[in-house]
């Protein structure tokens, strides 16, 4: 059985994350795209051999052959698009962060549950081979007691006139672009933090949103994880895990590219990188076909936004 998908938004993640990934999957077809601008939508559709483009989400959702949408629009658009898609009975893969505040996530979850929608939170990095290695090593207890971990990720989307910086389409900049991925990785590895402390600065562009955030997660006084999310320092993309006996260092472990490397106690680990977006869409469409939960759910979306919001308190 084939799954028909619509992409909402024509930006970076739609074009460079999802389109190439979906082209590699036999039974998944992109049947339409949503753009605010009819010409841009048509051009995007033509460039990627997508049959239909719409400027009105209601018309797009009216398509009875449509099974699911992938939401690739700014954070503040997610709630409205999720709720409309739920009401139309379409399954949803929603880009991170789930929304801009906790109450918005709760309203989305009510509709997801009411309409029995399969909802995937698009934490694509859970499908990156390097982070998967770390997850497996922690899950099979071969690391011993992990006491300390840290991650740093700096985005290159550092346009001070972009929607992340201006504050009307997102409540966060660095935390939305990168911090949310690192929170997700540590929640995935270690569960829920029991304490969250953060400090935030916006020294370069004086943005209303965070240009650089440093976040400390405490897990029951047994483990500390530090996160550095940035929109203003040069490219950095690294994770480090320290236990009572082991050290794992991962380079380039987050993102679209598949060039990560993992060193376990100094030895390079042989991993086979895959496109995380490919893995994520396969997982999501399997969840639809098998009526099961995707790897990352609306609860992951909600808990993550709860932590993001605390980073601003
Ligand atoms: N998983 C990841 O690694 C990852 C990476 C980057 C981004 N993201 C997430 O994906 C979503 C989209 O991010 P992106 O980097 O693709 O952003 P982007 O390049 O700015 O694209 C967003 C698209 O949304 C549409 N849109 C609708 N209303 C808009 C508005 N008021 N302002 C700007 N664009 C609007 C636009 O398409 P039209 O102009 O055609 O309407 C635009 O091209 C965000 O939630 C972001 O956090 C995830």
Automatic annotation (TrEMBL):
Pfam families, alphabetized: GFO_IDH_MocA, GFO_IDH_MocA_C3
Gene Ontology molecular-function annotations: nucleotide binding
Matches recorded under Gene3D superfamilies: Dihydrodipicolinate Reductase, domain 2 (3.30.360.10), NAD(P)-binding Rossmann-like Domain (3.40.50.720)
Domain GFO/IDH/MocA-like oxidoreductase, chain residue ranges per copy: 132-245
InterPro entries: Gfo/Idh/MocA-like_OxRdtase_N, Gfo/Idh/MocA_Oxidoreductase, GFO_IDH_MocA-like_dom, NAD(P)-bd_dom_sf
Domain spans labelled Gfo/Idh/MocA-like oxidoreductase N-terminal: 3-122
PANTHER family, alphabetized: D-GLUCOSIDE 3-DEHYDROGENASE (PTHR43249:SF1), UDP-N-ACETYL-2-AMINO-2-DEOXY-D-GLUCURONATE OXIDASE (PTHR43249)
Name the UniProt record assigns to this protein: Gfo/Idh/MocA family oxidoreductase
Organism: PS1 clade bacterium
